[in-house]
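Fold this: Transcriptional regulator, XRE family
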Amino acid sequence: MSSEFNIGAKIKKLRLAKKLTLQAVARETGFSPALISQIENNNVSPPIATLSKIARFFDVKIGHFFAEEEEECRYEIVRADERKLMPRVISRAGTSQGYSYESLSWRKQNKKMEPFLLSVMEKVSEENTYSHDGEEFLFIMKGTAELVLEDQRHELTEGDCVYFDSSLRHRLLSKDGTEVQVLAVVAR
């Protein structure tokens, strides 16, 4: 596993370029100004849904936050040891969300899809849901997950998959508190 992304600095750069306050970004995302500051300083990571909202707010693609290369490439191979981790994912209340994610594509820019590997590690006390623009595809690679979609709960086991409209309130949880690994593809 290689190093972490420097997403916070990219968010701060976009915010300062538009001369916006932390409060303005906080209003858009539902996170407090203090938590946006923590994200900008790379102390904590935003959930994918929040990153999607921030990207839309600044009129960039989610891939903007993961890209390192300036020039466009037409294809990309990411080796297993080149994946980059987004640890310490937090909720709007600032509590741990019990998962981390890795971007599986960070060189190719202007993508229509963003593939991630999610690792859901633990039961969380706060089961808040997220919604954002776009569509999502989840494939359960390992473990048993519980997917909350609006007010319904669905149990998903290894090999199961689901495709849904991201505007539905959603949240993926570990069914029994053991690790769940999921291939997640987010499209805007």
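The longest helix spans residues 7-17. The chain has a mean pLDDT of 88.
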